[in-house]
Amino acid sequence: MTKKIAVLHTSFVFVQVEPIINDLIAELIPDAEVLHFVDSDVLATVVREQGISAKSEMRMVRLAEAAEAADADIIFSACSSLGPALDAASAAVAIPVVKIDDAMARRAAAEGRRIGVLATVPTTLQPTTDLIRAQADALDREIQVVQRLCEGAFDVLMGGDRARHDEIVVTQAVDLAAEVDLIVLAQASMNRLAPVLKDRTGLEVLSSPRMGVEYLAERVAALAS
């Protein structure tokens, strides 16, 4: 039976600018029916408020509840900044909730000792760091995390200037590489730069979209069994 996947978006970046999640789901879970639920302002609100307020958390809960009401079988969150709010959303619905960076965080915790977290949105640094540390605790591994913000990169990407976005990210990644042994890209919107950054830094560079959707495919397959 075809499974319904509800994808939760917190900006239009994966709808208008970087449609990679749609492409990966079409490739890896071709029989799925995909529903999109978008709150195009909640990420901007979290960035403006420099954290997840109770109201922002409730907005994510409402998105998840809308997905459940639409008879989705599983929810996939495309946003790393709102990760903690997704924990609340998961508790509010009866269907599984998968975060885009779950699988990436597990791999980083398993392979890295000094892990660099590179972000283009400041509010993603701590949720990504916390997720990696939680995975390291589960694996009983000692790690260190070095955070690095690519100041202004996300804003110029949303303005359509990919070249400037890429320049900022590459510069920060090369600088960060001197301090770490593995780099995690906290924003899925940075995904297409992973091969370039690996080449420029000589380090393993992890990005969430493919790993996240591969894990989603596993969860969907488990539902069907």
TrEMBL record:
Extract the Pfam families matched here. Asp_Glu_race (PF01177)
Specify the domain of life of the species encoding this protein. Bacteria
Q: Which family does it belong to?
A: Belongs to the HyuE racemase family.
Name of the protein in its database record = Aspartate/glutamate racemase family protein
